[in-house]
Design brief:
By secondary structure, this protein is mainly beta. The chain has one domain. The longest helix has 7 residues. The chain is globular. 35% of the residues are buried.
C-alpha cells in the first residue's frame, strides 16, 4: 500500500469536535484562522475512504495558532517545526460534512468503538493552524463495519 495525500492546507476542526470530546475529524483551510475569516476550504481526497491506516500531518509551514485550546483538558496549541510528522491517529478513514457551509471533514473511526478521542487531541493541538500535507498511510485493512457513528452526537 502506498501513502495517499488527503490534501494540503491549514489544519483545523469544527467546534463540535472539541465540545463533544469526539476529536474525530479535521478540516483543511486555504487561509484564515480561528479569528480571521476563511475564504476557502480544501476538499479532502476521499479515495482511501474505508481503508484502515494512519493519518499524519507533515508540517510544511508554521505559524502561531489562534486557538484558545481545550481548557478543561489542559491542552493548548504548540508550534511544531517545519518537517515534523505529527501522527493524528489510526483507524478507518471516513469523510463527512463538517457541519457548516458544505465543508467536508476527514477523520478516522477508531478500531474500538468509543465516543471520544478518535484522533489524538494533543497531536491535533500541535498541528492546529499549521500548513500541513495531510497524508493517509494505509495498513492494508478494510473494515466496512465501523462506518456508522459509535457515539451520541
Amino acid at each position: 500500500m502506498t501513502t495517499h495525500i488527503i490534501g494540503i492546507g491549514r489544519l483545523s476542526w469544527g467546534s463540535v469536535e472539541r465540545r463533544s470530546d469526539r476529536y474525530g475529524a479535521v478540516i483543511l483551510m486555504a487561509d484564515g484562522d480561528s479569528l480571521a475569516p476563511v475564504s476557502a476550504y480544501i476538499t479532502p481526497d476521499g479515495a482511501a475512504v474505508g481503508q484502515r491506516g494512519t493519518i499524519v500531518a507533515e508540517v510544511l509551514e508554521i505559524r502561531q495558532s489562534t486557538h484558545i485550546g481545550d481548557l478543561f483538558r489542559g491542552l493548548f496549541p504548540e508550534t511544531p517545526t517545519v518537517g515534523d510528522r505529527i501522527v493524528l491517529g489510526t483507524g478507518t478513514l471516513f469523510t463527512e460534512a463538517a457541519g457548516f457551509d458544505g465543508v467536508t471533514a476527514v477523520g478516522l473511526h477508531p478500531d474500538v468503538p468509543r465516543s471520544s478521542d478518535w484522533l489524538d487531541p494533543k497531536a491535533l493541538y500541535r498541528a492546529h493552524e499549521q500548513t500541513v500535507r495531510l497524508v493517509f498511510e494505509p495498513d492494508g485493512g478494510n473494515d466496512e463495519s465501523v462506518h456508522e457513528c459509535c457515539c451520541d452526537e
